Amino acid sequence: MDSIGIEAFLAVIRHGSLTDAANALFISQSTLSHRLAKLESDVGVNLIERGRGIRSLSLTADGQEFLLLAKRWEGLLLETTQIRSRKKSISLSIGAVDSINSYVLPPVYRALSELSRDLEISIRTQQSTELYLLLERGEIDIAFGLIEQPMPGMIIDKFLAEPLVVIRREETPQTHEMIDILELDPDKELYMNWHASFHAWYNKYRSATKYPPIRVDTSILLHTFMETPGYWAIVPLSMAENFKATGKYGLYRLKNPPPDRICYQIQSIYPRPSAVEGLKILDSVIKKVLY
Known about the structure:
By secondary structure, the chain is of the alpha/beta class. The chain has helices at 3-15, 18-25, 29-43, 61-84, 98-103, 106-115, 128-137, 196-205, 219-225, 237-244, 273-289, and strands at 48-50, 57-59, 90-96, 119-125, 142-145, 154-162, 164-169, 175-179, 189-191, 214-215, 232-236, 249-254, 261-268.
């Protein structure tokens, strides 16, 4: 078993087809197929199930287990290269959903940037389901998402729970502790679906009214539409406080509120060797800045 075969195997997994994997490696499909066949011969099991078409590829059960080993091997090779070049670098790739990246993690990112010049940080914004795929492919080291989706080889912990509250654009922002959702104008609502439990709660209290005319999925779009007084939205407290700080929005707690919005921290049981130190630094910064 050699690194060339493992490189070919991981390329197929990450690109989803022999054609794209071969193009990414700048080799022919026949060369790629030969490398995969040699790898399977070396390990003694079939790793990839091949359908009739070259794009119909999936991992066998043995292939699923081997994927974790291949990622660890890849990380060790990177570490070996760094040792040989006598340059030790700490890298960390973080993925999170839009609202967490924009309103929860910024103080963490600022602290990380000031902590060490030797820490290379990559930050990605994706949907929760996409974050799991990126983790599985080894493209990010840690993720902060809104879905708890158990997967082999992953550690999933509750990271943050925060209430959902109302923000409303107002000429003279008021500070009111409580408001009933039925008191709010449905024609001026901007709807964001935060999680399945929120959707169920919303349908219960809004069943007698029409569905909101505007639905958005990013905080930037909320800012775009909420420039007109009277427009409102239900958002996590961290986002609401950011809006309120501009002096243009009132913040209201809901009577009979929906379930809290929960964020999960997800990472691999076997992180890349070059990311281990970065993950430790991130953990210490989170504890210092957020808790």
